[in-house]
Amino acid sequence: MKKFLIIAFFLISYSAIAQTSTDKQTILNVLERQRGEWNKGNLQAFMDAYVKSDSLLFVGKSGPTYGWQKTFENYQKSYPGKAGMGFLTFGIKKIDFLNKDVAFVLGSWHLKREKDEPQGYFTLLFKKLKGEWKIFVDHSS
Q1: pLDDT tens by residue, 37-77
Q2: Fewer CB under 10 Å: which end of the chain, C or N?
Q3: Taking the model in full, what pTM does it have?
Q4: Domain 2-140 carries which CATH code?
């Protein structure tokens, strides 16, 4: 019986690690798609990474913004056109799973534009909804 419990424990642990590894890669893929769309100047596709809901919370230098549409409009105002968007790179520092459906991401961002190179950090909360990882909280500075 003891042997069975030990084997069961290792199988469950391995399954959780495999799921976490797969989910981590999926989140990295979401961020890479997001970065790629930004660099193409496709803000609409960039926003696909966010949950399309009024519950989306974005916190930036102007304070909190609620909702996908308002967040999209703020991005449009702050980064007009391809020149305003520049070339984006991310540096992912860590991904921690708070439970099987929620992940915390810490990273840095850097924009290269003709006249400047703003940069900062972000924290994201991802939630797995209907099998897809979506950002539902973004704090960028």
Answers
A1: 999 999 999 999 999 999 999 999 999 999 999 999 999 99
A2: N
A3: 0.85
A4: 3.10.450.50
